[in-house]
Amino acid sequence: MRRPPKAPRGGVAGRGGGRTGGVGGGELPRLRRDEGARILAAVPARARVVALDLRGRAWSSEQLASELAGWLADGRDIALLVGGPNGLSDACLARAEQRWSLSPLTLPHPLVRVLVAEQLYRAWSQLQGHPYHRG
Question: The whole model's pTM is what?
Fold first, then answer.
């Protein structure tokens, strides 16, 4: 019998669509759809999908720790979907089992990745009784 890891394993896969500056308004739905297809192609078939979305639920650190505990107990891979400058496609939002809002503000994609990583580490630390979370 193997000992479980001290920390959950994870990775970050970027599937962004790039810049959309100078693109006509008629092109944006196609770009969002194409980006969504690339994102969904990277999601494992049985994964729990959580979309980061402005219209999602905002969680405190304690609430995120509770959500994380449920995700980990579920035993499936977890895929957190972060859209590009135009948000997530309808297909991505439809595939999501949950929607999580980090903030009512529009945040740049690289910053969202850092914030999500830190908040997940904080939630995991809280579940482990680690002193990192002092909230």
Answer: 0.82
